[in-house]
Amino acid sequence: MRRPLPPLASEVRQLRALLPPEALDPPSEARELPIRVLCRFRGQSDGEEYRGGQSAWELERSCGIVLPSEATSRVQGPLPEFAFDRVFGPEAAQDEVYDAVDPIVREVLSGLNGCVMCYGQTSAGKTYTMEGGEGELRGLIPRALETVFGAGGQDIHVR
C-alpha cells in the first residue's frame, strides 16, 4: 500500500505539473557543482565612516578572491586569502545577488534538493540580503517566492 505524500511534497508535485517541460530540466552547469559558496560584503555604516573606518578586505570579484587589505595586514600581520565561487561587493544590487541563486530555486522546482543559507557576524547584512526591503530592495526570500509562485502561472509580487 502506498503512503500518501506529505502536504509539502504534494504541493511541490502540483507546482511541477504546471511547469513547461523545459523548466523541469535544470541547466547542466547547475549540476556540476553541488555546493557553491557566495560571499557578499556590505559597505561601511555611517558610524564606521564617521570614526574613520577602513575596508578590511580587497575584493577580486572577477576571480572570487578576497584578500586582506593593506590596513588589515598592518594590524593583524599576514593573513590568508579566501576563494569563493562568487564575490559581491557593497555596490551589488539585490537582483544581482538573486540572479546567482535563482538556479537553485529552479532546481528545487524540478525535483532536486537545494538550500540557500546566509551566515555571518551580527550586522553583516544577512537579514537585508535574505529579506530586504520594498520594491527593488526585496531580498532573496521574496524573490524566490515570486519565482516559485510564478512557475505555477500566478502573477504575484511578494513584499
Short structural summary:
With 159 residues, the protein is an alpha+beta fold. Helices cover 39% and strands 10% of the residues.
Characteristics:
159 residues, alpha+beta, elongated
Description:
Helices cover 39% and strands 10% of the residues. It has a 3-stranded antiparallel sheet. A two-stranded parallel sheet has the order 1-5. It is elongated and about 60 Å long. With 159 residues, the chain is of the alpha+beta class.
Q: What's the topology here?
A:
Layout: H1 7-18, H2 28-32, E1 38-40, H3 46-50, E2 57-60, E3 65-68, H4 70-76, E4 82-83, E5 86-88, H5 94-109, H6 126-130, H7 140-151
Parallel strand pairs: 1-5
Antiparallel strand pairs: 2-3, 3-4
Helix pairs in contact: 5-7
Q: How far apart lie the N and C ends? A: 43 Å
Unreliable residue runs: none
Q: Indicate the percent of residues in helices.
A: 25-40%
Mean pLDDT: 82
How many β-strand stretches?
A: 5
Q: How does the helix and strand content classify structurally? A: alpha+beta
Tell me the β content: 5-15%
Q: Enumerate how many helices there are, as a single number.
A: 7
In spatial order, strands of the major sheet run 2-3-4
Radius of gyration: 19 Å
The gross shape turns out to be elongated
Largest sheet composition = 3 strands, antiparallel
Order of helices and strands: HHEHEEHEEHHH
